[in-house]
Design brief:
This protein is mainly α. Helices cover about 55% and strands about 5% of the residues. Strands 1-2 form a two-stranded antiparallel ribbon. It is globular and about 50 Å long.
Length: about 200
């Protein structure tokens, strides 16, 4: 297997236009984020191995777009009383922490041909980058670029990558609707992509 060949220009245009259109009150802040971090965002992989969902250049953006589309479909299907624009914004920004900190990328391309050929591992952890949780770094970027968010949005970003943790257990039954939508959407998107990689039947949603 080799890394997916994605149309990164098409993905980036879709991602950036969708993000700007759902963040009109934060347009200047969003544009600054895109201008300064856009190259890193579009080049960022979501995972380390090709056997895992959304590996390779454009993987993070492709995942974020599919998360946003799935979340939008859930809102419409089950008629949640939430702003679709807010849900889409959270979906598109929820994983930007995967790019790394302000100075260093979180993952780097492996220079080991053995790991690529035998394990399908194309990315390694970058020791120069601080260790952190993705959701906390995503929130850092939103704060750094002065992108305003509500308590419900903040909670959804905290919980999205905190499965089976003390944080998740603490919030328990107090998840906002946005949190619930994104958590369900994430499970659907990752499961569908894994089924696609494995060549098994895809769930119909």
């Amino acid at each position: 297997m080799s890394l997916p060949d994605r149309n990164v220009e098409e993905l980036w245009n879709l991602y950036s236009n969708l993000l700007l259109s759902t963040n009109k009150s934060n347009a200047d802040s969003i544009q600054k984020l895109l201008d300064q971090q856009g190259q890193r965002i579009i080049e960022c992989t979501y995972t380390q191995k090709i056997s895992e969902p959304f590996c390779g250049i454009g993987g993070l953006v492709e995942y974020s777009i599919k998360l946003a589309r799935t979340a939008k479909k859930l809102v419409e299907t089950f008629q949640y009383n939430v702003s679709t624009a807010d849900v889409i914004r959270c979906a598109l920004l929820s994983e930007i922490g995967r790019i790394g900190n302000l100075s260093h990328d979180r993952l780097k391309i492996s220079d080991s041909e053995w790991h690529k050929e035998k394990l399908g591992q194309y990315y390694n952890w970058n020791d120069e980058c601080d260790k952190y949780s993705v959701n906390h770094m995503s929130l850092f970027y939103m704060s750094h670029y002065n992108i305003g968010f509500t308590w419900e949005e903040y909670q959804s970003l905290i919980l999205l990558n905190a499965e089976n943790s003390d944080v998740s257990n603490f919030y328990g039954n107090f998840k906002s609707d946005i949190s619930t939508i994104l958590l369900i959407s994430k499970e659907i998107v990752l499961k569908k992509e894994k089924q696609k990689i494995d060549g098994t039947h895809s769930i119909p949603f």
